[in-house]
Amino acid sequence: MNGLCDDAMATTYNNLYLDIRRQLRGVDTGDPTLEARELVCFATGKSREELVRDGALYMSPEQEERTLRLVERHLAGEPVAYLIGEWEFYGLPLDISSDVLIPRPDTEVLAGLAIDYCQTLGECRVLDLCAGSGCLGLALAANVPGARVVLGELSDGALKICRQNIRRNGLTGRVVCIQTDALKKPDGNLGEFRCIVSNPPYIPSGDISGLDVSVRDYEPHMALDGGGDGLDFYHAIAEQWKDALAPGGRLYFEVGVGQADSVLRIMRGVGFGDIQVVKDLNGIPRVVYGTLCTEI
């Protein structure tokens, strides 16, 4: 009969998940349903399917304590993706560390546009510049069988994550990573690409101290700081990396809030045409892309 007394003090997987979701709804976090589920799964070692299957079962006190410790850290500002070491982007599971930005749903807008374009090309070479976790380039490779993708990144820590994610998603045959500085001219040995995608650092240097604690204190500043006006990387990539783009090829940028018009002017000024601005899921202009004119 002692077991009944113990059960009375315990909680089920589902009840703890619901309690955490309720807590997260009371604060300004991303998706409380997703975050609560990922925290419980990680702390208990269960898959999403196992969490649903075992929802009515009681968890051990150790599992509950481990879960609640993670929730405390998250409520203090630490992002869930860094707590659990992985996140999903465009249906792909990705390793994540504090050396890379956490992939966000808004960036899937850029991925979808570039995938649609590359699917019309057949065999093509694609460059993901300022690759971070490699999320954009890997999404392209996974959805465009004819694409061979290069992930270009400066950070040693980010390159390590890129390599892990290439292996994790079984894309070793078609994706490679190289260490390169997007602010400098490309190495002539890189060859030509039909498509370049980039989600570069675009936060103005002076704005970083005012960012939300979950970004300011945990995400890598190297991947955030876009210089005085936030536009340093757009100037450098549009002006210098067009040399690595085949005539008629496309350059796709993710941009920060209020930057779309400036990036459009930068691209137009160095020879890109048919420039388009596309809004994200919240109606904010988020992607700017254009085609490299054959005559400038």
Verbal overview:
There is one protein chain. The chain is 40% helix and 20% strand. By secondary structure, it is α/β, with parallel strands linked by helices. It folds into two domains: 2-76, Helicase, Ruva Protein, domain 3 (Orthogonal Bundle); 86-292, Rossmann fold, CATH 3.40.50.150. The strands form two sheets. The protein has a seven-stranded mixed beta sheet, with helices on both faces. Strands 1-2 form a two-stranded antiparallel sheet. Helix 2 (13-25) packs across helix 3, helix 3 packs across helix 5 and helix 7 (107-118) packs parallel to helix 8 (135-143). The chain is globular and about 70 Å long. The model is unreliable at 1-8 (pLDDT under 50).
Question: Which labels suit this protein?
Answer:
single chain; 296 residues; alpha/beta; Helicase, Ruva Protein, domain 3; Rossmann fold; 2 domains; 7-stranded mixed sheet; two-stranded antiparallel sheet; globular; disordered N terminus
Binned, the helix content reads 25-40%
The radius of gyration over CA amounts to 22 Å
Largest sheet: 7 strands, mixed
Order of helices and strands: HHHHHHEEHEHEHEEHHEHEE
Q: Which consecutive residue ranges, at least 5 long each, have pLDDT under 50?
A: 1-8
Give the total of beta strands. 9
Number of helices: 12
| CATH level-3 fold name of the largest domain | Rossmann fold
Q: CATH homologous superfamily name of the largest domain?
A: Vaccinia Virus protein VP39
How would you describe the shape?
globular
